[in-house]
Every structure is written in C-alpha cells, then in structure tokens.
Amino acid sequence: MNYYYIETFGCQMNVHESEKLAGILESRGLTAVSGASRADVIVFNTCCIRDTAEKKIEGNIGELKALKRSRPDLIIVISGCMTQQAGRAEALKKRFPFIDIILGTNNQYELGEKIDALLKAGKKIISIDNADKPAISEEVPVFRTSFPNAWINIMYGCNNFCTYCIVPYVRGRERSRDPERIISEIRSAVNEGYKEITLLGQNVDSYGSDLDSGMNFYKLLQKIAEIDGKFRVRFMTSHPKDLSEEVIKLISEHPNFCKNIHLPVQSGSNAVLKKMNRKYSRERYLELIGYIRKYMPEAGITTDIMVGFPGETDADFADTMDLVEKVRFQNAFTFVYSPRNGTPAAAMEQIPADIKKSRITRLVALQNSISDEISLDYLGKTYEILIEDEEGGICAGRTDSGRLVRFPGDKEDIGKFVNVKITKNKASSLYGEKV
Ligand code: SF4
After folding, report:
1. What angle separates helix 111-121 from helix 12-27, to the nearest 10 degrees?
2. What is the pLDDT, as a whole number, of residue 51?
3. Domains with residue ranges and CATH for the chain
4. How far is the CA of 328 from the centre of ligand 1 (A)?
5. What does the pLDDT look like over 136-152, one tens digit per residue?
6. What number is the average pLDDT over the span 168-185?
7. CB-ligand 1 contact for 161 (6 Å cutoff)
8. Which end of the chain is more exposed for a tag (fewer CB within 10 A), N or C?
C-alpha cells in the first residue's frame, strides 16, 4: 500500500475530519494522490445534510465498483454522517458489497486499526458508535491541507434539534474539548506558520456548557487572545440563541479576531422560527445585529436563509425580506427548503415548488443588490489581505471582514499579509492591486 485518495463531501467539519483521516494514513507511510484510480486506499467522507447530497455520493460509490473489480486489493472505506444514520451502514453494505470498511462519525479514529483487521482477517467491517456522547479522540494525527488556515475543533455534536436538520441525529450531543488542548493546538499551528485559525463547532457559542469548570466561549476567546503572534481567528458556526453581547464586545477589542460574524438567521418570521425550533425571535436577532454594529461598525455580517419551510406564508416570507433589508448582510447563503428524511419538518405539510422558486428568486435578487451596494463601499480603500490561494498569477485572499479579493501576485505569497487597494467590483467579486 502506497497511495490514498480521500474525497470529502459537505461542510468544513468534514474537511477537517478528512485531515485527520489523512493524518492516520500519512502516519502509516501512505501518500495522497489526486485521483481514485491510482490509490490503494479510497476514503469517502460523506454528508447527509440533504437527500440530494446522499444520492450524489451513492452515485460516486457505485462508480468504484469497476475499479474494485479490476483491483481486488483496493481498500474502499466509507465514513462520515451518511453512515451514522440508523440502519444506513447495513443498507450501504447490501447495496455496495464491494465496500471494505464503513466507519461512523465517531469511529474515524479507528481507520488504521480497521485496515489492519481487514488485511488480517479479510472480512468486511462496519464500526458505528451510536452513543449520545461518544468520547473525544484526542490522539489522532492531523495532516493539514488548508494552509494558511488551520481548522481546530473546539466542540462536537449539537443539542438543538432544529426541526429541518439531521446533524444532532448523526453527530450526538454537545461535547466540548478541554480548553488547554485547544490552546496548545492553536499555539502549535501558529508556531508552524499557520496565519488563520478557524474554530469549529456546530454551535460554538455554547462551548463549555457541558464542562464542569465554568468554561465558556467568552473565556476561551480570552485565552486565545493572550496567544502571541500575528494570526487571524475566525469561528463557525454561531447560533443566535447563544451568541452574547459580551462575546461580540470581546471580538471587537482584539485585533486577531476577525470582524466577520456568520450568524445564520434562517427566517425573519417568528412563526417560522418557532416551527424550526430555533429558540430565538427576529427581535432578538436584530438586537444581536445592533450589538455587532455598535461595537464593530465595519464588520462583515453573513448569514444562512432558508425559504419555503413548511407552512411559510406570504406574510412570513415578507418578514424575511424585511429583515434582510434591515440587516443588510454582506453576503447570504440562500437555500430552498427540501425535506430531509428522519427530521420532524419532513413530516410537516410542504408548500408547492413554484412558490418556493418565486420566493428564492426574489430573495436572491434583493440580497445581490445589497451585496453590490456594500461592495461599492470597498472601492478605493486599502485593506490588509491574507493571501490564501494563487492561480495563473492571480492571488485570492480575504479582508478581515471576510470579503474575497483578487489581485496579481505570486504563489510564494500564499500565507502572507499584504495591503491591497480595491480598484474594481465585478459580479460581486472585488479586485485590487498590492500597495
Ligand atoms: S444548530 Fe440546528 S441547524 Fe445547526 S447543527 Fe444544530 S440542529 Fe442543525
């Protein structure tokens, strides 16, 4: 065995978990390749947030059949959220008998030992830990792939049970990592040259609520603020139910914390928020936005918005449009609600597709016009950019407020902070020149 290939589906949590799967394989002497055909071990790290995502992954798994037939020694591993759903691992095994190892979200750390067991006994393996609060595995090596950004988990799982979301069913209840381990991991990443630290959790604002030490997200950020060095800190995802004024104020006071808050609102209607079980009101959401504007007038505020949730009326949708106009998000990830099997909302009465389509079209048009207006504010000004990528002599990086900017530059500049004057706004992208 010399080469491995990992394909990651879904969110940043999965991207980082794939870095741990890669760490396990690298520590056993394997090297990454960019395509499945050359690999000796293929890992699919899967997502089940939408039915469409699962269908796509199933299609991709099906395509591995011919490869496995031509190379019976190939090891095929399916892992992640899709496998963790009740009965799903057995169904996958039945439908795709050529899969060698199936690992749940809480069993990924077992990858190495399961490969050994497979090689020894030659038997297919399913390993799924269904505990509500599985132990956190701290000793897994990480092979980072997102320089200059280092993903760092601060917690796992979710307690919220939003009625449209499958995550609490496949990721268990909230478990916070020990703060000293988090700080030590951040220090190591900074010492290794990483310039951006992104703290990961399904609901970072409730960090520490399961610890006995009185630790919370505010105190963790205070500790992170004490770490020396020039680096940026971002985090995802915040929940309006738990974000506090004191956290917002702390972010505003420390230069390393990016002035970029992603705060998913999902809907501007109290009736819909209630049906979604989001546990905050539009009034509370607008109050939080008020705090962000008060302490960080230049902050980039982004959000997620879902339209067409079961029971959403014209008046509910009008509330969402009104909230979007009031907040003026820098950017919004907009979705049409689609039922996710296994969640309460999937059993609610659905609204017609043409209504959903008309609403999303209007929402996207409104948000695009706001994003374009906000972009105009950037023109002619100079911002510090952390260069994240380069292609064909064009670098891409972000402002502290989270806006992507493109400008001429070299690959060697990835990971450097540079000052860039914004000269052009085209199709919601900012372009500039180094100064
Ligand atoms: S907070 Fe809600 S949307 Fe986010 S992961 Fe938990 S249940 Fe899902």
Report:
1. 50
2. 86
3. 3-127 (3.40.50.12160), 146-258 (3.30.750.210), 262-376 (3.30.750.200), 382-434 (2.40.50.140)
4. 23
5. 999 999 999 999 999 99
6. 96
7. yes
8. C
Structure confidence at residue 428 (pLDDT): 74
83: left (phi over 0), alpha (psi -120 to 50) or beta: alpha
Q: For the residues of 268-296, what is the DSSP string, one character each? A: S-HHHHHHHT----HHHHHHHHHHHHHH-
State pLDDT tens for residues 193-221: 999 999 999 999 999 999 999 999 999 99
Work out which ligand 1 atom sits closest to the CA atom of 202: 5
Q: Which residues pair with 5 in a beta bridge?
A: 42
Rg (CA), the chain: 22
Determine the 3-state secondary structure of 157 from DSSP. coil
Output the residue whose Cα is nearest ligand 1's atom 2. Answer: 162
Give Cβ neighbours of residue 361 (< 8 Å, ≥ 6 apart). Answer: none
364 pLDDT band, cuts 50/70/90, is very high
Residue 374 CB neighbour total at 10 angstroms: 19
| Residue 132 confidence (pLDDT) | 87
Closest CA to 203 of 163, 165, 250, 241: 241
How far apart, in whole angstroms, are the C-alpha atoms of residue 78 and residue 313?
A: 40
Q: Which of 344, 330, 340 is nearest to 400 (CA)?
A: 330
Q: Atom 4, ligand 1: which residue's CA is nearest?
A: 202
Q: CB of 160 within 8 A of CB of 279?
A: yes
For 138-142, the CB contacts below 8 A with 24+ separation are: 138/177, 138/178, 138/181, 139/109, 140/20, 140/23, 140/24, 140/108, 140/109, 141/20, 141/23, 141/24, 141/26, 141/27, 142/16, 142/19, 142/20, 142/23
Give the angle subtended at the CA of 35 by the CAs of 393 and 5, to the nearest 5°. Answer: 110
Entry pTM: 0.94
What are the residues facing 6 on neighbouring strands?
43
Which residues on adjacent β-strands are paired with residue 44?
7, 78
